[in-house]
Amino acid sequence: MEMENLFAEAQNIIPGGVNSPVRAFRSVGGSPRFIREAAGATVIDAEGRTYIDYVASWGPMILGHSHPEVVAAIREAAGKGTSYGAPTEGEIAMARRIVAAFPAVEMVRMVSSGTEATMTAIRLARGITGREKIIKFTGCYHGHADSLLVKAGSGVATLGIPGSPGVPRRLAELTLSLPYNDADAVRDAVGRFGDDLACIIVEPVAGNMGVVPPQQGFLETLREVTRASGSLLIFDEVITGFRVAYGGWQTLTGIAPDLTCLGKIIGGGLPVGALGGRREVMEHLAPTGPVYQAGTLSGNPLAMAAGIATLDVLKRQSYGQIDRLVQELCTGYGELFTRRGIPHRINRVGSMFTLFFTAGEVTDFVSASRSDTELFARFFQGMLSQGIYLAPAQFEAGFVSFAHTARDIDRTLAACAKALAAL
Ligand code: HOZ
């Protein structure tokens, strides 16, 4: 069926035609591509067109699509039953791998999405401290739990929704959203109400306002003020976990949060999330402690099998190799934009990157918002029409996988040259 017809039919029976808002192409126009299948670095749409994929399911597919070892693990697990609602050895194997890769994690609770992980982390912080207020950062996105939708990034920023109807005002008032990378604002806020602060939650590398790296001292300040005020520091490494390194940003920097949220890559493309931290913190969760959290599909055997296979393949990979490929891509983009005199800023951390159409540095949501989103939309369409599938929104990260090759990068840059010429 043609893309427009699929989208029309989907819109009749699914709100907006999609099951997650940024997929709807609202900010770039046109119909979303309905994907039929994917392999390696490419996806194929329902009309049979092939694209080099830089969405990678928004991060999880770091090995590329349909990796043979991951597919085999899922097949084998599926043959043994798809869900038991009882503990399995796979959950221990997964927890062991996470604990080994994250120095600040001694215990892990598996859930089914990143949203569940961050929601549980906030509840745990409130339960342990007996306090109610939380600090997050404008343009960071931690899933769609009520407390975390205040001034969020990703689809919330793309659609220009300042908060969300349905989130009780009294709950939203407990969330203070501060500018990312603004250590002074954090010190000031903690000075004012640190006594009622349960936690600070942060993407240690922001990926949901586009990629924005932390500036020197920012995360260190968060660690210092949370310790001093008796609140918890939560790193949301749902995107950065096993993406920036085998481990997370904390593995690279040595900054140890109290709680770590994971998702995406650890499910190998199946729905998953996880929450980890020190033993004395994690044991506040039921049934050892009073803070309640549960889930029928938590630690699902298929998700564990896919995640374990992914981590085991990843362990053998050289992250330097993928980082160099993305560096080449970003350098190439930069040269082409400069040649055309188009103001731009390219933020890259490891294999995550974002192209911003602005001359100024992008260090927080205000500076990210200066990007010319209308120009981004035209560029996106120019790339799509040549078989390059970028995230259909400015405030997202692009992802490269171990399946991408130098030839993919060359083809992408050739498409970029044509797209820019047509702008
Ligand atoms: N929130 C995800 C991007 N940061 C998008 C999820 C999706 O649409 O699949």
Write up this protein.
The chain is of the alpha/beta class and 423 residues long. It folds into two domains: 3-66 and 318-422, Aspartate Aminotransferase, domain 1, CATH 3.90.1150; 68-314, Aspartate Aminotransferase, domain 2, CATH 3.40.640. It has helices spanning 3-13, 68-78, 89-101, 114-129, 154-158, 169-172, 183-193, 218-229, 249-253, 279-282, 301-315, 319-339, 365-368, 373-384, 406-421; strands at residues 35-39, 42-45, 50-53, 107-111, 133-137, 175-178, 197-202, 232-236, 259-263, 273-277, 345-349, 352-356, 388-389, 398-399. Strands 4-10-9-8-7-5-6 form a seven-stranded mixed sheet, sandwiched between helices. Strands 1-2-3-13 form a four-stranded mixed sheet. A three-stranded antiparallel sheet has the order 11-12-14, covered by helices on one side. Strand 11 (345-349) and strand 12 (352-356) form a beta hairpin. Helix 7 packs parallel to helix 8, helix 12 (319-339) packs parallel to helix 15 (406-421) and helix 14 packs across helix 15. Bound molecules: (4S)-4,5-diaminopentanoic acid.
- Looking at CATH, the homologous superfamily of the largest domain is Type I PLP-dependent aspartate aminotransferase-like (Major domain)
User: Which segments are poorly predicted (pLDDT under 50) over 5 or more consecutive residues?
Assistant: none
CATH class label of the largest domain: Alpha Beta
Q: What is the tally of beta strands? A: 14
Derived from helix and strand composition plus strand pairing, the structural class reads alpha/beta
CATH architect. name of the largest domain: 3-Layer(aba) Sandwich
Largest sheet: 7 strands, mixed
Order of helices and strands: HEEEHHEHEHHEHEHEHEEHHHEEHHEEH
> What is the number of independent domains?
2
- Side-by-side strand order of the widest sheet: 4-10-9-8-7-5-6
- Terminal Cα span: 30 Å
What are the bound molecules? (4S)-4,5-diaminopentanoic acid
CATH names the topology of the largest domain as Aspartate Aminotransferase, domain 2
Approximately how much beta-strand content do the residues carry?
5-15%
The number of helical runs is 15
Mean pLDDT: 96
Helix content: 25-40%
